[in-house]
Amino acid sequence: MKIKTKEFFTFYGPDCRKRHFHRRRGNKIVEFLVQLEILIKGKWYPVIRYDTSHKFAHCDILHWNGKSEKIAIPTLDFKNALTYADNDLSQNWNIYRERFLKEVNRNE
To answer: Which of 40, 21, 38 is nearest to 29 (CA)?
Structure first.
């Protein structure tokens, strides 16, 4: 069965967007990345990233200083994990954006 890829952006404002990428085989999600990004001084920075890069669904909370926290998503099903990630960023993008911007302001 052929693998199909889908990728798009959802903009929440001039400085905030969600990057959505996934690959599927039939109805099965085999890989995904959903990432919230904010624009600072002309460059897009990742703030929160959900992905399957280590062969399991997880969330990386990214910080302005370059550190990150990895949190496993409590499901083995990539399709449900993708839905969870997409919904979380759609509903909470402004909270994550404000948290990151506070870190930026503290460190400049």
So the answer is: 21
d(CA 73, CA 86): 13
Give the tokens for residue 2: 């052929």
Chain-centre distance of CA 11, in angstroms?
13
Picking from 61, 54, 65, 71, the residue whose alpha carbon sits closest to that of residue 92 is 61
Domain boundaries, the chain: 3-106
How far is residue 84 from each of residues 23, 32, 104, measured CA to CA in Å? 16, 12, 27
Q: What is the pLDDT of residues 16-42, one digit of tens each?
A: 999 999 999 999 999 999 999 999 999
Q: What is the pTM of this model?
A: 0.92
